Amino acid sequence: MRTQITSAGMTDIQQVLADHHRYWGDRDLRSLHLLALVQEFGETCLVARAEDGIHGYIIGFVTPTGIGYVHLIATRDDARGTGLGRRLYAAFADAAHRHGALRLKAITSLANTGSIAFHRRLGFDTKTVDDYNGPGQAMVVFHRVLPFDAG
Q: Where are the alpha helices (DSSP H) in the chain?
């Protein structure tokens, strides 16, 4: 089924939240879906739409220092393994670059081995940073320079 990647709107994120389990399984990450990010950074918050709904999305923004920061990326359970995550990242990288980004950045928990492997396959450098999210809360930090080659 063909998907089209476009800017996300509030109704898109509300649909994602209604179908949260299709993207995140048993992990309840609804509190991370900050609607203000979509309101304020709509040009870098993207959804992949198909006839049967939203297959994936990415919520991100560009910092004043030229970093395209990815806050969340997810694909629906029936769209995994299709390359959609890579396509979403490439579309985000293009949008972020248009808004002045020179680099990309994302973070995840040490336990999120799937995310770590995904970002490594996309060419991100990874580094574990102790106390990144507060005392005793190490995170894996991903970096890569633009342009983004989706190859």
A: 10-18, 20-24, 35-40, 84-98, 113-121
